[in-house]
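Subject: Sanity check before I submit

Could someone independently write out the structure tokens for this chain? I want to compare against mine line by line before I put it in a report. The sequence has 173 residues.
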Amino acid sequence: MASRFPLTRRASRDDGPQRPPWTSEALIRAGCARCGKCIPACPQGILIPGPAGTPVLDFARGECTFCGLCAQACPEGAAIFPDPAGGPWEAQGGRVAQIGGGCILPMGISCQLCTDFCGNDALRMDLSQRPAGRITLDESACTACGACVQGCPENAITITRPAPQANQEAAHG
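---
Independent answer below. Compare away.
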């Protein structure tokens, strides 16, 4: 994908392809017929063919509204999307936004586009940090919708599993 800025770096993705909500890598591998019916069903256009034609989310295209139309379009139904009434990321062990090393704030370049795209105020600018501030994440407010991913000019944000230490800090904080 071409960058809008010359400093662009890709954030690391440590847990494989991002699968649609209410499913998981294991469920996709075990039950997906690779028919692709879920892909055009996504009104945001963020589902794309991934490994072996299976559905993958591409948050660079936009955010997930958790409409559930991908699950409804799936002819395999409950085999792949077992509990659409549950949390959208339960089958994947939870998801949150993660700001990686490509963020330009530590270089002294002011940017807070991710906070502008976040409709849940899960990302906030902390101007007390030098040189240009720091983005903080409120994991309890983050729905992992991916809006911030599209908004980041440096591709420094991924949607991934919560870090174990972050969960421990939140529990002790």
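---
OP: Matches mine. For the report I'm noting this point. The CA atoms of residues 139 and 167 lie 9 Å apart.
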